């Protein structure tokens, strides 16, 4: 019987959104490549630490929800990085604190551009393994300064459009265009689903980030070996789920409380790390114990082993309105003001993230988008027996880059059906 929790860490690659002009694309690529060349190990370490602190802090808030869970801390942080240049005073301080932005902003943006460029990976036949894009929709009555527009285009590859907030037709057209753009950038895996009130007469600006992953396992599972096997949820009992199986040479770690497994993807530094508690009801304790220090310590102790892997196929689709969550994390000032004068008297309104993942014998497909709404004020290897790891009860997972350590997605599975 399968009956343990497992935690998964997947590594991802980032690709900036493309300009409609080929010349601009080449210019932006050259700038990002230069940024990547000038990137220091210290900048990478600080960015990764900030991102992963956001990932774990956000997970501590979202884990109180029931059921499966999936989100992208990386997508949220990139939206915050873009927003930070429009914030001032206490609002800027809180954005930096919650999003883990420790470098000066003048260093943050080229560092983020350089890291993203370094993470970009495509398969030998040119297929995208991980894609990343940004879009900004600005009300016509708002005039962002040229240096802000240049920063968004140069370092975040942002697509910038405008809409007329005085007409409902223009509001609706802007929202539909953003939804279509989200669908396109996530290859149709996610459908853009910004609600009707996300662009309205009081909307000054909307920032949207998307991330998309489609990666094959370095060592795929045979479909013939997939069978229905028991999975145990401590609350709902035992039930059968389609479970993949294979004996593989993988990196592995174990102690008295947890088993940890690393599964790499082809043609990339991306990987999935699975954490499986020794007990069926061990997920809550693992979630409480999981810190950045603990994760890094366990990852550093992984070593080559022959492993019998039993992993359920699963799919998760999550949607979160993050305003109350972010407030609980200490982000309060931006929701009452604290932005630069060119935006007018505005507050941070809705913060929405939708994310989806599917894991099967071939690999993983995942995507997420984050949308932030700015509103005018007044609106809210030794020969031996193989290790055996059976993921047959609730488990947690993250998506992480093995070189930088940046967590791009994070989630939990309590029912793979």
C-alpha-based Rg, rounded = 21 Å
In DSSP terms (H or I, runs of 4 or more residues), the helix count works out at 10
Mean pLDDT: 87
Strand elements, count:
16
Poorly predicted spans: 1-21, 379-383
Q: Main attributes?
A:
30% helix; globular; 10 helices; ten-stranded mixed sheet; 417 residues; six-stranded mixed sheet; Alpha-1-antitrypsin, domain 1; alpha+beta; Antithrombin, Chain I, domain 2
Q: Would you kindly provide a written description of the structure presented here, covering whatever features stand out?
A:
- By secondary structure, this protein is of the alpha+beta class.
- The chain has 2 domains: 13-215 and 317-376, Antithrombin, Chain I, domain 2; 217-315 and 383-413, Alpha-1-antitrypsin, domain 1 (Roll).
- Helices cover 30% and strands 33% of the residues.
- Strands 1, 2, 6, 7, 8, 9, 10, 14, 15 and 16 form a 10-stranded mixed beta sheet that branches. It has a 6-stranded mixed beta sheet with strand order 4-3-5-13-12-11, with helices on both faces.
- A hairpin with a 3-residue loop joins strand 6 and strand 7.
- Helix 3 runs antiparallel to helix 4, helix 3 packs antiparallel against helix 5 (105-119) and helix 5 packs parallel to helix 6 (146-156).
- The radius of gyration is 21 Å and the shape is globular.
- Residues 1-21 and 379-383 have low confidence and may be disordered.
